[in-house]
Amino acid sequence: MQGEEVIIRKAVQGDFGAIYPIFEEIVRAGETYPYARDTSYEEAYRIWMEIPHETFVVEASGKIIATYYLKPNQSGQGAHVCNCGYMVASHARGGGIAAKMCLHSQERAIALGYRAMQFNLVVSTNTTAIALWKRMGFETIGRLPEAFAHPILGYVDALVMYKVLITCSTRS
Amino acid sequence: MQGEEVIIRKAVQGDFGAIYPIFEEIVRAGETYPYARDTSYEEAYRIWMEIPHETFVVEASGKIIATYYLKPNQSGQGAHVCNCGYMVASHARGGGIAAKMCLHSQERAIALGYRAMQFNLVVSTNTTAIALWKRMGFETIGRLPEAFAHPILGYVDALVMYKVLITCSTRS
């Protein structure tokens, strides 16, 4: 992907035909996301397009190569912390697309009024993702023992990662 | 409540008329749960009775004085970790009802095949709850900075707490 122009834009309903193969490939593998490995097209649509606050796609040469969602991590008094999920098609990995999406999502989150971003279940064996989130300024809040059932490795730990986006503390 | 016999039993649909005032009192106060403070009866029913795997009530002298739900904390490869929420009517607090429910829920979770229990957002100012979960063997996984918008205190930290219920590690 190096050097290629990519654009990030809001997903529309008609994009899901191109989003689903990316979702399906990652979710079927079952190594990084806690969605059921046999998640249907309809359920995936609900998860990725309906439940989130916003969903984006990344296009390169007019083709969708990656996608992310942004949503409140909790309701009510926890709704000022957002959560995102990022997926890059396997053929498009290694070119900095996930980093671009993460930066984009942080800007978007701030614009939407969120104050922090939380990842609830970063699989400890997903070292590429962990390294990236650290570079992006996320801190590891803690480690959940054996919280993820990896299809090859068995029960593995998962991390809770967090980044404060707006520092305007009521405590300071 | 000291000395009074209490029973814990599965909630049925007709119990919700007695559950809702307990839910409403706690959620309107907005100091411990991240549900919207104006959560409607219908939405509360969905949250407490429909979404969970199981819901229980605590009865004393034939009256419902407390309730809890039990559900998977994540889907798919995270569904072996459960999450619970406990609510005790204000007039019934201080008698060990929450502890009874927590013990009951751990037994129930094990019976249902869960391997661990996670609390995602224990409000740091809710010191009674934190002390109880610690006594119940929960460990603090980490502290989420200003993750809860307390209606009186402003943004306060929240804890992620976790207890392994089944220790049969694939790593050992």
Provide an overview of this structure.
2 copies of one chain form a homodimer. The mean pLDDT of chain A is 95. In chain A, helix 1 packs across helix 2. The longest helix of chain A is centred in the middle third of the chain and has 15 residues, at 97-111. The first copy, chain A, has helices spanning 16-29, 41-50, 97-111, 127-135; strands spanning 6-10, 54-60, 63-72, 81-88, 116-123, 139-150, 154-164. The first copy, chain A, contains 4 helices and 7 strands, in the order E-H-H-E-E-E-H-E-H-E-E. In chain A, strands 1-2-3-4-5-7-6 form a 7-stranded mixed sheet, with helices on both faces. Chain A has 172 residues and is an alpha+beta fold. The termini of chain A are far apart.
Secondary-structure blueprint of this entry?
2 copies of one chain form a homodimer.
Chain A: E1 6-10, H1 16-29, H2 41-50, E2 54-60, E3 63-72, E4 81-88, H3 97-111, E5 116-123, H4 127-135, E6 139-150, E7 154-164
Parallel strand pairs in A: 4-5
Antiparallel strand pairs in A: 1-2, 2-3, 3-4, 5-7, 6-7
Helix pairs in contact in A: 1-2
Task: Give a brief rundown of this model.
Chain A is of the alpha+beta class and 172 residues long.
Largest sheet of chain A: 7 strands, mixed
Order of helices and strands of chain A: EHHEEEHEHEE
What would you call the structural class of chain A? alpha+beta
Enumerate the strands of the largest sheet of chain A in spatial order, edge to edge or round the barrel: 1-2-3-4-5-7-6
Total helix count of chain A?
4
The coarse silhouette of chain A is: globular
Strand content of chain A: 35-45%
Measure the end-to-end span of chain A.
44 Å
In terms of quaternary structure, what is this?
homodimer
In total, the number of strands of chain A is: 7
User: Unreliable stretches of chain A, pLDDT < 50, 5 or more residues?
Assistant: none
Mean pLDDT of chain A: 95
Which pair of chains forms the biggest interface, and how many residues does each contribute? A-B, 43 and 43 residues
Radius of gyration of chain A: 16 Å
Q: Helix fraction of chain A?
A: 25-40%
